[in-house]
Amino acid sequence: xxxxxxxxxxxxxxxxxxxxxxxxxxxxxxxxxxxxxxxxxxxxxxxxxxxxxxxxxxxxxxxxxxxxxxxxxxxxxxxxxxxxxxxxxxxxxxxxxxxxxxxxxxxxxxxxxxxxxxxxxxxxxxxxxxxxxxxxxxxxxxxxxxxxxxxxxxxxxxxxxxxxxxxxxxxxxxxxxxxxxxxxxxxxxxxxxxxxxxxxxxxxxxxxxxxxxxxxxxxxxxxxxxxxxxxxxxxxxxxxxxxxxxxxxxxxxxxxxxxxxxxxxxxxxxxxxxxxxxxxxxxxxxxxxxxxxxxxxxxxxxxxxxxxxxxxxxxxxxxxxxxxxxxxxxxxxxxxxxxxxxxxxxxxxxxxx
Length: 353
Known about the structure:
Blueprint: H1 2-6, E1 10-16, H2 22-31, H3 35-38, H4 49-55, H5 63-69, E2 73-78, E3 95-99, E4 107-110, E5 113-116, H6 124-139, E6 153-158, H7 197-200, H8 207-240, E7 249-252, E8 258-259, E9 266-267, H9 273-276, E10 280-283, E11 291-298, H10 302-310
Parallel strand pairs: 1-11, 2-3, 2-6
Antiparallel strand pairs: 1-10, 3-4, 4-5, 7-10, 8-9
Helix pairs in contact: 6-8
């Protein structure tokens, strides 16, 4: 990630998601809308999840359908929306390998047929990595008639890591043994009198809770080692196929995560920056290497950016904006860019932030 993306691409220091819960955020990735517009408001029915996205018709117009209509081949590997557990393949995807079931599942819907991968034999992120790299090799690197050079591809690759339970591969299980939990001033605050009531009502975290979070952080780091290797394998496949210099790669996340800040245990659904701030690094043709930009960018911006780069037309319902003006070495001045945005959440288990 550091060598192939951060050092050879442009990183955005102020990248945010507008809803820090998995399903709403991923629907925003796909449609470029705030959650109140795409109406996937939570992770499960009746307010959210894959079923809500499908029944509402949201999946009939996404970055995948826009790019497919523009002549792109499209492929999906990894996590889709939660509660996706059917043989249905959403519109716009030519190749489909999506996690079938909840976040604990080790099954993939592979082009309409569910395959169960024994977790004792297969780490699912390794499976996804192999499938994604293989797709690049046989799509971008193949000779005609198997590959038509005027049909580029769009790929979504979504690993499970570092989502809980943050399972690592056996080869990484001893990594990060000595890593401690970061404890910034916001960690387990003694005085929360300046905080909203739903924070003031929380007691300080106890030693057992802190110990659990410290071990969870180690697990999350270990699980990300497979993602790091996944990125390396994908770049190697692009390099061998001769398509690396013609390909844009976006690396980001659907949410952040808090671990003890503001007296909160492990989680992600609040408006605090630990939850809404995410990494975003872009590498591709003409994108400056080693650059860091301060512009405020959102997950709402990804779908219209993909459309713009691909020469496709994004529908008028899109709330985000293309990031293309920030990727050419002469970015729009920060003062001429977005200055504010909306953060939203639906509370199913507690008060809204």
